[in-house]
Amino acid sequence: MRIMQLLWLSSCLGAVAHAEQAVIDNSGQSDHGVLALNQAAGNANQQGNLQAVAVSTTASHANVFLPQQQSANTTAAMADAHASITGAAFSGSQGLMAINQTAGNANQSLNTFSLAVSPQPHVTTLPSAAADSLLADTAGSSPTVTTTGSSGHVQTDISAAAFQGSRGLVQLNQIAGSHNQAVNVVAVQWANP
Fold it and tell me: pTM score, two decimals?
């Protein structure tokens, strides 16, 4: 009788929606240089942080490229999703900070930075129009995620103390929910005669 009850309980628990939580609390304070962080809670999420730097006395070419494929099919109960950055996370940091934080299912987020320095610089990356095109192209590549149950509560938040006193470039994608796409693209061509 006891085994039957345990089997019944475990089968019931499998159908219960659960909360997806991604929390960054007081991390990354006073970092210097390049900080690339991906944090995901949930299923079938894709995240990327790509940087390219080219420096030359003649000609330079910085290229950022990301092929992707996602083919997982999942079934997930619609969950509450909460992504938060709390405390004084990343405060006093300097440099390039590329952060993707996701709570939920089948989300995609990308940060790219490219810099070319030379008398004749050339940067190949994703300008904003191309970034929109990338997102349109990847929309069809998202996995099939079947949700069950009623819709969950989604929330993102950032503490007022987070990022205070930071200098440099901050690329932040913060997502809660399902089937979202976000991209930050920075491309710099610097002619140095």
Answer: 0.73
